[in-house]
Design a protein that fits this description.
Helix 7 crosses helix 11 and helix 9 packs across helix 10. The chain is built from eleven helices and seven strands. The longest helix has 15 residues. Strand 4, helix 3 and strand 5 form a beta-alpha-beta unit.
Length: about 230
């Protein structure tokens, strides 16, 4: 189910979009899909952090469609850099699968939207149009609207009590927390779980965002209260 809001004011101006994705065929396909909407114009495609930031030094779009998993940097980290240089720039994060953690992380980081890469072209166009007008568009299809509302409410609190932390974490994230208490670094966590170090780094980052804290030590200390 989609969660979106948009302002009602219409505009005849074209909406300029930058697509940032390490997978070039997907980026080209996205540009082709967006071309079905005459109000949307893709003005560039970037495949990594450097090409994205270099592009933005010369031309600033209205909306950035940003892959959550880039080869050289997480989409969350790159969004921080984009927002620091261009606070008014709208960002829609694109994910391959829908998880509660993605919604929480994207929301806390200030993304205007989140879409599945497998979404219909109509939904992608609607998201770009909504966000360009100052709206917000989140579409984690497997999640019920009521659960997303609870999660958004939780985001208003910088630190969370143990019962909230326990509810927010997925089984995999609880497993990662157990590994953090050993303590293990990202490479060791990745080896233990059979995932890449980059994926482990992002999973840890999402946990910190859910906890409303900044460091692994704070996470371990918070988790000690959960395990009591």
């Amino acid at each position: 189910m989609s969660v979106h809001w948009e302002k009602s004011q219409e505009t005849a101006e074209q909406i300029h979009v930058l697509i940032v994705d390490s997978h070039r065929p997907f980026a080209e396909g996205t540009r082709a899909l967006l071309s079905f909407e005459p109000r949307i114009v893709t003005i560039g495609i970037a495949g990594d952090e450097d090409s994205c930031l270099n592009f933005l030094r010369h031309s600033v779009p209205d909306v950035v469609l940003l892959d959550f998993y880039l080869r050289d940097i997480s989409g969350l980290d790159l969004m921080d850099k984009i927002k620091a240089a261009h606070p008014a720039l709208k960002v829609i994060l694109m994910v391959e699968q829908s998880q509660e953690g993605y919604v929480l992380a994207a929301s806390r980081k200030g993304a205007e939207g989140l879409l599945l890469k497998t979404c219909a072209v109509e939904e992608m166009i609607q998201a770009v149009l909504s966000v360009s007008k100052g709206g917000v568009y989140y579409s984690p299809s497997p999640l019920a609207f009521s659960q997303v509302e609870i999660d958004f409410h939780d985001l208003h609190f910088p630190a969370k009590p143990a019962e909230v932390l326990k509810r927010l974490l997925t089984p995999r994230e609880k497993e990662i927390m157990s590994l953090l208490t050993k303590p293990l670094d990202n490479r060791e966590i990745a080896a233990a779980l059979g995932i890449t170090a980059r994926a482990a780094h992002l999973q840890v980052k999402i946990i910190l965002l859910k906890f409303g804290i900044n460091t692994r030590l704070e996470a371990v200390l918070s988790w000690a209260y959960v395990d009591e």
